[in-house]
Design a protein that fits this description.
Elements lengths: L1 H18 L4 E32 L10 H15 L5 H30 L1 E26 L2 E7 L6 E8 L14
Antiparallel strand pairs: 1-2, 1-4, 2-3
Helix pairs in contact: 2-3
Length: 179
């Protein structure tokens, strides 16, 4: 009885194995016909800076009325040295007006000259475009057929490929696996 059960079990396993379909996989080499580099455009923001020199006013000792007042006094004194009588007064007044204008101009130009210039750094982000290698468009031949793929590297003259072989049932579909 035990022998009959063992024989029947062996026959059932053999029948199941004969009816099962398993794909066979192996690796082989294919001949590469071409490997064309593919590039993509990539935005690379960069910061560009430049230094500009801007004028600065004199420090806290700046008095906005000192130049016109001193210029007016000097002009009045200088103008009073000319003329006689009412003409002397008129010359002093004209000298004071001219002296005030000259004093204001001198003070204005010295405010910047006294302060000098100061470097100021101005920066801006600029967009630069670069072409970067995205991969290789590879055309290769295997078993008399041509194939195409994209790889992240240049494969060289030959490409290692994985080959899978499985029987095809009538009608072009692979039969279902039986276990």
């Amino acid at each position: 009885m035990k022998a009959t059960i063992a024989i029947l079990s062996t026959l059932a396993l053999a029948a199941g194995a004969a009816g099962s379909v398993q794909a066979q996989e192996f690796e082989d080499w294919a001949r590469v016909r071409s490997a064309t580099p593919e590039y993509e455009k990539v935005s690379v923001p960069q910061q560009e800076c430049r230094t500009e020199y801007v004028p600065v006013q004199a420090g806290p000792s700046y008095h906005p009325y000192a130049g016109p007042v001193i210029g007016g006094i000097a002009g009045g004194l200088l103008g009073s040295a000319f003329g006689k009588g009412n003409g002397k007064v008129a010359m002093a007044a004209a000298g004071a007006v001219v002296g005030s204008i000259v004093g204001a101009n001198v003070q204005g130009s010295q405010a910047y000259a006294g302060g000098g210039t100061q470097p100021v750094q101005r920066c801006a982000t600029v967009e630069r475009w670069e072409q970067r290698l995205a991969g290789y468009n590879v055309v290769y031949d295997y078993a008399g057929r041509s194939y195409q793929t994209v790889l992240p590297y240049d494969p060289g003259r030959n490409l290692r490929v994985k080959v899978s072989v499985a029987p095809v049932a009538a009608g072009g579909e692979a039969p279902p696996r039986q276990y």
